[in-house]
């Protein structure tokens, strides 16, 4: 829970997190090594120095550390686990639903566990999707359209093969389709993450919600023109948000465009943990203000009510969560008790934005 300097409580859902294993023992080939090195470059180049991890910690971290970083130190009330399989690069997969389920089992009220599918997996993949629904009652999936599979280097969300899976998602009640449409990661191809294929899929399946992770960067304008037309297309801020630290003007321009085109009801906070820790992202975002020239040009503003929606209420609506009821469940759990005793967490200075905010963790 984050509390502003005026006592306003902000319910936070981190809509983009992972528990991954990129340790050398799990790297299948040079591409696994290159993948985590690329992730680490994002991490160290966009994070404040005090939040940069040693590479060995970044390659593989414990469930306990993740819980601490999210819920004890990071102001987060709930988090959504988003799988990324990458079995061509990692022996046991990089970040599968089976790996992520450890967090759900340990902290069932804190985590939402999403599944995954790949349109190239045919009937066997559809059966695996049904098993994920049966075993974990998933409400969403994370898709990686640029993932390599044998000789194939990606697929289209608008393909007939993908539509079989989207039809099955609709039938099973898996309504939240999180799709990576943003910066590439070595060695994947940038064009395979092009946001264009979201357009037809969203039109064809109005009963599903398409959360475009990373807001389509570097194709922000393309994404915005799709999202303004398709009412079921949402913006996931993971990867865009960390620019608030090294390039605040760039981040302000991203936010002004999103608020103008997409609107405050369709933007979701996400840290992309463990690429970035939520604590500094939350502090800086809650203290952030749009420059006056962007307010004047776009006729938008990052008010407290807008931030409240982005930080948690929008994701709560998509996943059928009542924030007040959820906070009651979380109020006395182990993590809330730990958070309440963390020295210095009752008052935080949101660095770099010129304004202070008082913060609390736990429920």
UniProtKB/TrEMBL annotation:
<feature type="compositionally biased region" description="Low complexity">
    <location>
        <begin position="344"/>
        <end position="363"/>
    </location>
</feature>
<protein>
    <submittedName>
        <fullName>Amidohydrolase</fullName>
    </submittedName>
</protein>
<feature type="domain" description="Amidohydrolase-related">
    <location>
        <begin position="13"/>
        <end position="321"/>
    </location>
</feature>
<feature type="region of interest" description="Disordered">
    <location>
        <begin position="332"/>
        <end position="363"/>
    </location>
</feature>
<dbReference type="GO" id="GO:0016787">
    <property type="term" value="F:hydrolase activity"/>
</dbReference>
<dbReference type="InterPro" id="IPR032466">
    <property type="entry name" value="Metal_Hydrolase"/>
</dbReference>
<dbReference type="Pfam" id="PF04909">
    <property type="entry name" value="Amidohydro_2"/>
</dbReference>
<keyword id="KW-0378">Hydrolase</keyword>
<dbReference type="InterPro" id="IPR006680">
    <property type="entry name" value="Amidohydro-rel"/>
</dbReference>
């Amino acid at each position: 829970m984050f509390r502003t300097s005026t006592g306003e409580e902000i319910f936070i859902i981190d809509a983009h997190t992972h528990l991954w294993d990129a340790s050398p023992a799990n790297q299948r080939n040079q591409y696994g090594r290159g993948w985590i090195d690329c992730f680490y470059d994002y991490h160290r180049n966009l994070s404040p120095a005090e939040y940069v991890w040693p590479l060995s910690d970044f390659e593989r971290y414990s469930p306990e550390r993740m819980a601490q970083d999210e819920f004890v130190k990071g102001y987060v009330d709930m988090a959504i686990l988003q799988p990324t399989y990458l079995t061509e690069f990692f022996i046991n997969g990089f970040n599968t639903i089976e790996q992520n389920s450890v967090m759900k089992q340990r902290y069932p009220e804190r985590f939402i566990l999403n599944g995954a599918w790949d349109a190239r997996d045919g009937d066997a993949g559809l059966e695996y999707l049904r098993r994920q629904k049966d075993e974990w009652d998933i409400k969403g999936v994370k898709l990686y359209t640029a993932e390599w599979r044998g000789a194939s280097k990606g697929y289209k969300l608008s393909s007939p093969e993908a539509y079989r899976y989207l039809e099955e998602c609709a039938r099973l009640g898996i309504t939240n389709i999180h799709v990576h449409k943003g910066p590439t990661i070595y060695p994947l191809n940038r064009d395979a993450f092009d946001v264009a294929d979201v357009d037809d899929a969203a039109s064809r399946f109005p009963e599903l919600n398409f959360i475009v992770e990373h807001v389509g960067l570097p194709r922000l304008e393309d994404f915005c023109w799709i999202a303004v037309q398709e009412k079921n297309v949402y913006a996931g801020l993971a990867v865009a948000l960390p620019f608030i630290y090294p390039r605040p003007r760039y981040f302000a321009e991203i936010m002004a465009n999103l608020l103008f085109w997409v609107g405050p009801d369709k933007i979701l906070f996400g840290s992309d943990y463990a690429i970035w820790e939520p604590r500094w992202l939350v502090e800086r975002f809650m203290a952030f203000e749009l420059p006056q020239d962007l307010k004047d040009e776009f006729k938008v503003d990052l008010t407290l009510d807008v931030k409240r929606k982005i930080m948690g209420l929008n994701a709560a609506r998509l996943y059928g969560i009542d924030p007040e009821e959820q906070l009651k469940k979380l109020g006395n759990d182990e993590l809330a008790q730990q958070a309440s005793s963390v020295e210095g967490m009752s008052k935080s200075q949101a660095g770099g934005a010129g304004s202070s905010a008082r913060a609390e963790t736990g429920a």
